[in-house]
Amino acid sequence: LQQILGQLGDTLGRRNLDLLLARHPHLWQRAWAIQQLAGRGTDSLAGAALAGAARGADYFLTRAEAAEALTGFPSSVALPALDSAARDSSAQVREAAVAAAGQLGGTAAVATVRRAWQADSSDQVRAAALVALARLNAPEARTAILAGLRTPSYRDAIQNAAITLAVHRADPDLV
What we know:
- With 175 residues, this protein is mostly helical.
- The protein is built from ten helices and no strands.
- The longest helix has 22 residues, at 2-23.
């Protein structure tokens, strides 16, 4: 009976977190709910709640925080939502989604990151994509770093990322 009551409490707690994440008018409460759900990487319903928030929460920072939190979930749950978030209207959401995809890895993550590197309109997103390509050890990472070294951007975001990557890679020719 205690086990059943414990499971019921977990389910009700998760549902309350889901509702809090979806509807609470105070954004800090949503951020708290994201933190709580992020710690439940094996809970498919928690992953679904975060994926839904990353795709369509009404506030861009909620979408970005949810995208970051998805790194603790299986790729099958996280990557479809991150791919969608990587196309968001907010550059901060796209940046968070690309960075999260770079942490998860896999073929789908490489495709999402590659698309951001090649075509995103934000220099910050492209810099995050460059870092993610290197982290994923994508076949084109070295070529991307060389291109990043030659790419001027606002506040030198892309070149700074490329310089950092060049210094940290075990490739003396890049330095």
